[in-house]
Amino acid sequence: MKEKDFIQTIKTILNSGYIGDDCAYLKDLGIVVTQDSLVEDIHFKRDFATPYQIGYKSAMVNISDVCASGAEPKYLTAALSLPENITKEFVEEFYKGMKDACGNIEIVGGDITGSDKIFISITAIGKTAGRRISSRKNAKPGQKIVVSGPHGAGAAGLTELLSGKRVGKFIKAHLMPEAQLEFSKKISSNIQEDYAMMDTSDGLMDALSQIAEASGVLLDIDFNKIPYDKEIEKFENYKDLILFGGEDYQLVAALTDPQDFTVIGEVKEGRGVKIGQKIYTKDEVEKHLFNHFEEKK
Amino acid sequence: MKEKDFIQTIKTILNSGYIGDDCAYLKDLGIVVTQDSLVEDIHFKRDFATPYQIGYKSAMVNISDVCASGAEPKYLTAALSLPENITKEFVEEFYKGMKDACGNIEIVGGDITGSDKIFISITAIGKTAGRRISSRKNAKPGQKIVVSGPHGAGAAGLTELLSGKRVGKFIKAHLMPEAQLEFSKKISSNIQEDYAMMDTSDGLMDALSQIAEASGVLLDIDFNKIPYDKEIEKFENYKDLILFGGEDYQLVAALTDPQDFTVIGEVKEGRGVKIGQKIYTKDEVEKHLFNHFEEKK
Predict the structure, then answer these.
(1) Mean pLDDT of chain A
(2) What CATH number does the domain located at A136-288 have?
(3) Buried-most residue among A1, A3, A143, B192 (CB within 10 A)?
């Protein structure tokens, strides 16, 4: 089964309005919560990343999910399952990486158990006071699509690593992404309307497609307006890295007043994501994306 | 390395006052949070438990941790890592079990990824309003030690399973424990003093020893006052099942007014846990406990 089919099964059983966005918004408690896992040889390889980098990224991907909701990231808990041969140094470096990624966000608990491979599951909690919380259901025709920064670097870095390189221009972008705290805050603490926001960790096109699907709209994107590092043009199929590559941890939002953000398109009546003359359906986007159950990196 | 050494390493790096209790108490948000993992062949076996039972227990162990804090369990998130051959039916049954364990507690999110073995990590969030939150540091000489119910059934059930039985008096206690919501609420919503409370999931003696160590006190326990099912006496070393067995998910608390709770001992000046004439140091208790890194169930 594919991840997205599992999620549909879970939604049906739980019949919960909370499942859908990356964070669950718990209004009565004034918080959002998100939980994401990283599994050895699927999400990271010890051959590619140092323990410090694994810790750094594990924290950052969850902080990024809180940023996507518009809430203020405040606390993290971490559950690790570790093989017997893991050393004290690994644990130390992992936690140093997590701590550095966290900045003022506090790591407040977790759990350690045994396992054959390394499993990391992080929960992040954000405070919603003074912020308006996003939902991917909120895009409306007439809104602009804005992004927080360049795309393609995460996937370009992975391409470098997979080709055997351990030094490369984009490797750091892949191993140590940065969550977009300021972009998130600037939007969520000022906006007066409901808006959609997601991070692009699974690919810019995935985020756009999820917003289009959940909101029942067409997102009309101008590829030439998507910011990216020109050196990515050296990679084969570089447009795919930018659109479908993932691991960028930028934010994409649909809102009426784009202020001084980078506008890459607009929300229209219809369904799907339009790039140039082609409209990608949800299924077509999914076919281009990486799926953990089919292909292990 | 042992789990407890890892935790010491983590405490040193994070230099955090939050690490220590099973839940982190986030006062500014009015919540507690806890995260615990269950790994296939370490915490459960598919040969022993149905998917429904695995889901049920996964939720319950985290609800139990919130109960140990005294907070009101409100929300759960679940991260699953599943092998490719896992069926839709497994996921359905797992979530039905989680949902039934939750009752009014809502499952609000999570994550599914691939892996070789099943890895489950659950986060539970509790609301602290109207409750006084416990800490294992809070035991003081003069307080009584109370328990919420009988001990030994969880370990007796595991003994039955390991001996090849699939039907047995104590198997359900092992596979489908019940968190002690009422005992927790009764204490935390009325008590006027700081108090210590833990669940006994890692063994009654572990909980007692952790409270003794964190509070710098001696817990003087009368074994004859510990409630247990008399049929457990049929098991070899039945006293060890009751004291060190674990998987009971009862609560143990140190407080001044025991009301009508079952008193099993009292808090005194000193260090360690006294049973009869023997005082167990922290190290002696740990030697008797199950350690995930040494011995796989």
Answers:
(1) 92
(2) 3.90.650.10
(3) A143
